[in-house]
Every structure is written in structure tokens, then in C-alpha cells.
Amino acid sequence: MTVRRHAPRALAVLLVHSTALIAPAAFAAEDSADVITVTAQKRAQDLQDVPMSIDVLKDGELDNIRAGGRDILFLAGRSPSLYAEASSG
Fold first, then answer.
1. Which terminus of the chain is less hemmed in, N or C, by CB atoms within 10 Å?
2. Structural domains of the chain, count
3. Could you tell me if residue 9 is inside a domain?
């Protein structure tokens, strides 16, 4: 009789704790997708900790620029932190 009376309560506690263990793993997987590591200062740093202007290109964007017949000057015109000029000589 005691077992039957406590069984629903034990089941409810078990369900609450099992979902609490699953939720942090889901949030950790979601956050790790947007991590950008910068090695501009000869050490790995998070993007938020680097004290300089940084432009980020997604996978294949640089290849698309090259495939379209564009050069680095085209990219310099669209990236405020990139300086490039044509040289004659």
C-alpha cells in the first residue's frame, strides 16, 4: 500500500530531474555553433575578447567572390577593416 501511494510522486520527481539533465546539453549544443576563435595575436581567443575590428566571412563566400571574377580590391571596398590598393610596377 505504501509503495502504490509513493509511486506517482517518485515518477514525477524522476521526470522532472531527467528533463533538467537534458536541457543544459541542448543549450550547450546551440551555443557552440556560433563560436568564432581568432588567432590574430598568436593565441586562440574568443571573438569578443579581441581588441580589433574583425570581419567574418561564411563558408564559401571568399570562393564565390573569386569565382565571380572579383579580386581583393572588390572585397576591400566592402570591408571597412581591410585596406588594399593596386600597385603599378
1. C
2. 1
3. no
